[in-house]
């Protein structure tokens, strides 16, 4: 760490942006000149798990040593809410429901996540039965009052006396008829002025009582810790002279602290969303609008999809559904969220042999302690990282900077005693077999993120990030039939960078559930009107800093009777809304494209309308992927050796992308260091370094 | 650490694929099943499919055995090898052309119960059939005496339309005449046709993916893995069985009723299990003759229950398929309640009898391996159906839903409350989605307090669901269990609370229903009140813990 090194206040003094991402081990910070796009600084500080804000503020203080913070906004992806959820360290929370339905949260959808086992595990409800309360009331979906709302004040007094820090309210049919819920919320707020109130028709006005209740419950449960964190961080930044704070939401959009604290459930995928935003912007910068973002760290791997320059979003996801490698159901959250597939496969995943003699990798992980055997920290079980140490693709130098001495001998011993020995193989074959299995698992994950969603991976470019992503990207791309991989500069800082590049964004949606044909223009305008009001309300808390704002309408349409909708863009909100027949025609065309058949007699139904307001982050500025050309003399690559599967030593060039001039071309196989991460080109390929220090790889047979 | 067995030597002598390629293709087969399911759920019309997922997907080898299956409905899947064999008996391998599709639902010719429609399509690689893609999909109605085709009758002909294996798609062309014949015999035919198209799309997706695997790895490798995937699971089950002590155990329990009688002796299911080394023999000798009502199980349903129980006993993580199933042998007297013959009615066996069979098997196994099995569960899927005119929307409606209940406690954990157990896993239908689509209003969906059996590990709680019909002319039927025989505890655990069913009229007067009941004609304002059973407790409750519980 260079401490008070050079106090260079150079070209970047105009307008800077700061992006910060908090990981389990390190907190990453990146500083960009917002006018030139140049990366002025990028570094890591140790995270502070007891209060993540400490490390964030420490990073900001370090930036302040070189850059003035006046007028600077810090953009930040946070896992505070996610961690409170996963570790069950949320607030003391009550749930108020319609009489007869307080157990909806626990009854879930009544299905168990795994079959053929008597050891059934299902996520326990976030709010226990004793904390769930009923009130007499009932609304029909058309807004008819079936049973009037009882006097809620006695219950409100009880909750206040019991010291609840947060209250979630979810009444049946409130997605369409929220009056009772709003009335109850009003009284609860009066009696519990300091409690965090989460009202389902505000947080997620969508049909399906379990999913909406779950969203309101998550929002309430993580509300106080997230609110406190955001407020603490904003105050800390203000004290250090920064102009403001923006938080990355699960949608990849940025929001002001006040809105982040109002809808914490919308932040649960904040970190991964930031990373996917960086992939989207990087793809756009290199002329590749369709990107598969592949991120791999120590314990998990993730695949996300960018289509047409935008991260693919879905409207629902299940938080904390994978525990110790088992599916446990998790907690559904209705909010726009990046569509990322995650599996328990990382550098620390442990290889083992099942009783039938088949090699498996994961889901158990050696984690940070004891870690892979080759880290010499006490681990004895063979991991994916150990396979790399044996083969020679894991380099000692980057590890040494993190204070770890690479011990290939321990990796070899672990693979020998647990895999090679029992199978009667030599270590080289076993190490390569571990990587083939790990690659196959991750290729299945990429297929899940693409093929299962009707996308063809061959239409995409792979952009790897994270500590281990670049090591595996080429092999995975080949496995799924992709032929282009582009490794960005700073692949290990992608989430911090993405926070900085994200737009300010708000989404509002509501269920409609009416046949399209019944909706004339006035009816369509009427369903969008409350969404515009809500967006205006959210935007009133945002400072847009001169960013220009666009608003777009969307409609989710399906055939009546089906469950799954197709999301159709209806154009900008300042233009007239298209009429129903135009929407129907667009829907039928999209359906035919998606599923290969149309159903002429089926009735299209308008399920949900959505309004999205977005103000682009780098509008008018350059992104950081086009810095001025570097002038580096081509240094001849070193020759290194890798252990092949047949046990022979294979001579392979080893390069450092930073030590090659832009446009430098070479052929695979090769091992390349890109700003601290290692890229393994494990077969025939053409490669070229980009002007920004990125690495472009085209597999044999590609264009 | 357990020493590795020599790779698959126990069954095939040789594993011809290298273990890495094997694992990659084998995982690929299971992924194909999951993808088929996604297609089906996305394009089907019945809430029962798109919201409840009452459907299953599998890949069969050319003998009709299951090589891989989705994470779907155990009772559907365990019966799948019988489906494969019945289809191949009707259409031998050399009669298939690419793009063919065979449909069936006859429980006596490869089906499970009439609402389950099974579709098989061949997968051609290099001009040979290497596999079949198979789907089994529950249609909410297939005709018969009551809306929802899940009511009380005394012969299968009254339960709905029976379809033996028929080639409904010939080389990619749908036999529209045959389809019209089917649709003419079911309620809400347009939705059923939408469901059929969804099923067809799922099978086609499976065919395409398997052909891609064949192109990638070669036909020989694919064929080998389709077989070895079964050997692999077989070996895993045997390995776990070998680690258990041998046993001879038996148990018997009566069903609650069949809609005609509640006499225990005529509804008795008896089982004897003999476990020796790696063999697991189950004999249902002593079971009552087939009943008059629809609780009779066709043999594939009974076998499914045994397969499920065996894999659960072996412990989690074993990929289910025919190889795993083949580790059990099942005997039952021809014509008895668990091996019914035409024309016995069978519709309740899939949902009710199959779950009771599992509980009876577990009760027997609990004598030998109490640490490995849960106490009795709610023994049911608890199916209720409502159907009739929907005046407001100007079309008929059919509502078919299952209700969860309590699972038995097990060593190390309380039983789950309000969940589907054992042979089924269909989801509930969101109350809001139903009220937005049908003339129904729900008044309660909640756990039944104190219905889980006490024990060191408590049984899960049952569920109470109350639904009011808003329109006239609605028919209701209920297929439930455990109104009389409670879920048993294990090792001193207490039994769970019992189920109950009633119709309450607008004046508040309730009429108690038997566990299998209907069709009833309801008046507007009538409420169907249903309560499922709780699970049994596991182990005697520790009095010290009791006191602690009272003190705190």
From TrEMBL, chain A:
For this protein, the record's SUPFAM superfamilies field holds: Actin-like ATPase domain
- GO cellular-component term (any): cytosol
Mind telling me which Pfam families this protein's record contains? Hydant_A_N (PF05378), Hydantoinase_A (PF01968)
Which processes are annotated in GO (biological process)? glutathione metabolic process
| Molecular-function GO terms, alphabetical | 5-oxoprolinase (ATP-hydrolyzing) activity
List each copy of the Hydantoinase A/oxoprolinase domain by range: 212-507
Top-level taxon of the source organism: Bacteria
What Gene3D superfamilies does the annotation carry? 3.30.420.40
Can you give the residue ranges of the Hydantoinase/oxoprolinase N-terminal domain? 18-191
The protein's name: N-methylhydantoinase A
Instruction: Show the taxonomic lineage.
Output: Bacteria, Pseudomonadati, Pseudomonadota, Alphaproteobacteria, Hyphomicrobiales
Automatic annotation (TrEMBL), chain B:
Q: Which GO terms describe its cellular component?
A: cytosol
InterPro entries hit by this protein: Hydantoinase_B (IPR003692), Oxoprolinase-like (IPR045079)
GO biological process terms, semicolon-separated: glutathione metabolic process
Q: Could you cite one Gene Ontology molecular function of this protein?
A: 5-oxoprolinase (ATP-hydrolyzing) activity
Report domain Hydantoinase B/oxoprolinase positions.
18-540
Q: Where is this region: Disordered?
A: 515-552
Comp. bias (Basic and acidic residues): 539-552
Can you tell which superkingdom this protein's organism belongs to? Bacteria
Name used for this protein in its record = N-methylhydantoinase B
The organism that produces this protein has a lineage beginning with: Bacteria, Pseudomonadati, Pseudomonadota, Alphaproteobacteria, Hyphomicrobiales
């Amino acid at each position: 760490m260079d401490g008070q090194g050079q106090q260079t206040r150079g070209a970047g003094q105009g307008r800077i942006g700061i992006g910060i991402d908090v990981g389990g081990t390190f907190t990453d910070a990146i500083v960009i000149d917002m006018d030139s796009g140049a990366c002025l600084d990028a570094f890591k500080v140790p995270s502070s798990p007891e209060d993540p804000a400490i490390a964030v503020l420490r990073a900001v203080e370090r930036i302040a040593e070189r850059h003035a913070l006046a007028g600077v906004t810090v953009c930040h992806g946070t896992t505070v809410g996610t961690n409170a959820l996963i570790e069950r360290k949320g607030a003391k929370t009550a749930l108020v429901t319609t009489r007869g339905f307080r157990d909806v949260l626990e009854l879930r959808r009544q299905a168990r996540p795994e079959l053929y086992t008597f050891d059934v595990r299902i996520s326990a409800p976030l709010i226990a039965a004793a904390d769930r309360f009923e009130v007499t009331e009932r609304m029909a979906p058309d807004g008819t009052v079936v049973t009037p709302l009882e006097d809620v004040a006695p219950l409100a007094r009880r909750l206040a006396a019991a010291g609840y820090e947060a209250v979630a309210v979810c009444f049946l049919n409130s997605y369409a008829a929220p009056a009772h819920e709003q009335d109850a919320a009003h009284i609860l707020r009066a009696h519990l002025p300091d409690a965090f109130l989460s009202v389902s028709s505000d947080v997620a006005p969508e049909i399906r009582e379990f999913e909406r209740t779950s969203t309101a419950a998550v929002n309430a449960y993580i509300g106080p810790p997230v609110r406190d964190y955001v407020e603490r961080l904003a105050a800390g930044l203000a004290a250090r002279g920064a102009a403001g704070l923006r938080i990355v939401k699960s949608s990849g959009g940025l929001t002001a602290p006040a809105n982040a604290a109002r809808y914490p459930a919308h932040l649960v995928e904040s970190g991964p969303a930031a990373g996917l935003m960086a992939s989207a912007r990087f793809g756009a910068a290199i002329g590749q609008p369709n990107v598969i973002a592949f991120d791999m760290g120590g314990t998990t791997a993730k695949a996300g999809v960018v289509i047409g320059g935008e991260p693919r979003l879905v409207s629902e996801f299940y938080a904390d559904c994978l525990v110790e490698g088992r599916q446990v159901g998790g907690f559904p959250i209705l909010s726009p969220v990046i569509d990322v597939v995650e599996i328990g496969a990382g550098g620390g995943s442990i290889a083992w042999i099942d009783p039938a003699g088949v090699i498996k990798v994961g889901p158990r992980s050696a984690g940070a302690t004891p870690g892979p055997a080759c880290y010499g920290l006490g681990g004895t079980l063979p991991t994916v990282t150990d396979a790399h140490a044996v083969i020679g693709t894991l380099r000692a130098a980057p590890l040494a900077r993190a204070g770890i001495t690479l011990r290939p001998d321990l990796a070899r011993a672990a693979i020998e005693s647990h895999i090679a020995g029992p199978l009667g193989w030599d270590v080289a074959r076993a190490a390569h077999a571990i990587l083939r299995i790990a690659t196959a698992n991750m290729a299945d994950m990429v297929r899940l993120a693409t093929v299962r969603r009707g996308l063809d991976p061959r239409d995409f470019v792979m952009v790897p990030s994270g500590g281990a992503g670049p090591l595996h990207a080429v092999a995975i791309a080949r496995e799924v039939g992709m032929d282009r991989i582009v490794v960005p500069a700073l692949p290990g800082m992608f989430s911090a960078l993405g926070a900085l590049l994200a737009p300010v964004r708000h989404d509002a949606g509501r269920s409609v559930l009416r046949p399209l044909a019944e909706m004339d223009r006035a009816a369509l305008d009427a369903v969008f009107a409350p969404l515009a009001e809500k967006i205006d309300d959210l935007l009133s808390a945002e400072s847009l800093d001169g960013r220009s704002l666009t608003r777009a309408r969307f409609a989710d349409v399906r055939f009546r009777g089906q469950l799954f909708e197709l999301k159709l863009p209806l154009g900008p909100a300042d233009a007239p809304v298209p009429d129903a027949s135009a929407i129907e025609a667009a829907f039928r065309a999209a359906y035919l494209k998606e599923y290969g058949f149309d159903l002429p007699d089926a009735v299209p139904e308008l399920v949900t309308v959505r309004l999205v307001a977005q103000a682009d982050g780098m509008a008018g500025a350059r992104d950081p992927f086009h810095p001025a050309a570097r002038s580096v003399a081509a240094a001849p690559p070193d020759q290194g050796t890798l252990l092949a599967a047949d046990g022979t030593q294979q001579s392979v060039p080893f390069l450092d992308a930073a030590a090659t001039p832009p446009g430098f071309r070479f052929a695979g196989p090769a091992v390349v260091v890109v700003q601290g991460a290692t890229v393994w080109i494990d077969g025939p390929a053409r490669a070229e370094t980009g002007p920004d220090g990125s690495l472009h790889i085209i597999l044999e047979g590609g264009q | 650490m357990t020493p590795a067995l020599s790779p698959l030597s126990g069954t095939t002598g040789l594993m011809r694929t290298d273990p890495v390629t094997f694992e990659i293709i084998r995982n690929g087969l299971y992924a194909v099943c999951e993808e088929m399911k996604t297609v089906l759920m996305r394009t089907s019309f019945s809430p029962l499919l798109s919201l409840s997922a009452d459907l299953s997907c599998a890949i069969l080898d050319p003998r009709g055995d299951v090589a891989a299956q989705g994470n779907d409905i155990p009772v559907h899947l365990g019966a799948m090898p019988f489906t494969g064999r019945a289809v191949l008996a009707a259409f031998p391998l050399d009669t298939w052309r690419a793009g063919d599709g065979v449909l069936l639902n006859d429980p006596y010719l490869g089906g499970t119960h009439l609402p389950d429609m099974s579709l098989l399509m061949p997968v051609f690689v290099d001009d040979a059939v290497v596999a079949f893609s198979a789907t089994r999909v529950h249609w909410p109605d297939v005709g018969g005496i009551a809306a929802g085709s899940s009511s009380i009758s005394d012969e299968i002909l009254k339960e709905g339309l029976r379809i033996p294996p028929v080639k409904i798609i010939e080389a990619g062309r749908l036999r529209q005449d045959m389809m019209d014949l089917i649709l003419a015999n079911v309620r809400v035919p347009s939705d059923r046709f939408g469901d059929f198209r969804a099923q067809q799309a799922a099978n086609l997706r499976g065919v395409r993916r398997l052909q891609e695997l064949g192109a990638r790895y070669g036909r020989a490798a694919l064929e080998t893995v389709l077989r070895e995937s079964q050997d692999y699971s077989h070996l895993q089950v045997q390995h776990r069985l070998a680690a258990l002590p041998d046993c001879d155990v038996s148990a018997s329990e009566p069903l609650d009723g069949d809609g005609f009688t509640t006499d225990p002796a005529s509804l008795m299911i008896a089982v004897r299990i003999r476990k020796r080394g790696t063999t697991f023999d189950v004999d249902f000798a002593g079971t009552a003759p087939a009943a008059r009502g629809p609780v009779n199980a066709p043999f594939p349903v009974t076998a499914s229950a045994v397969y499920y129980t065996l894999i659960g006993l072996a412990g989690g993580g074993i990929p289910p398929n025919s190889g795993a199933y083949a580790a059990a042998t099942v005997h039952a007297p021809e014509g008895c309640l668990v091996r019914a013959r035409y024309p016995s009615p069978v519709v309740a066996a899939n949902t009710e009898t199959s779950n009771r069979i599992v509980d009876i098997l577990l009760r027997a196994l609990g004598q030998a391996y109490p640490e490995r099995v849960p106490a009795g569960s709610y023994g049911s899927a608890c199916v209720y159906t409502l159907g009739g005119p929907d005046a407001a929307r100007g079309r008929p409606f059919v509502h078919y839903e299952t209700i969860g209940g309590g699972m038995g406690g097990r060593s190390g954990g309380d039983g789950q409350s309000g969940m589907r157990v054992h042979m089924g896993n269909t989801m509930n239908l969101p109350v809001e989605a139903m009220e937005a689509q049908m003339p129904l209003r729900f008044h309660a969906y909640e756990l039944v307090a104190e219905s889980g059996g006490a024990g060191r590990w408590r049984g899960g709680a049952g569920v109470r669901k109350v639904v009011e019909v808003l329109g006239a002319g609605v028919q209701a039927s209920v297929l439930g269990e455990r109104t009389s025989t409670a879920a048993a505890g294990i090792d001193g655990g207490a039994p769970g609370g019992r189920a109950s069913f009633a119709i309450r009229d607008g004046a508040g007067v309730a009429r108690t229903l038997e566990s299998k009941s209907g069709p009833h004609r309801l008046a507007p304002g009538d409420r169907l009140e249903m309560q499922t059973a709780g699970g049994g407790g596991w182990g005697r409750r520790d009095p010290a813990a009791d006191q602690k519980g009272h003190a705190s």
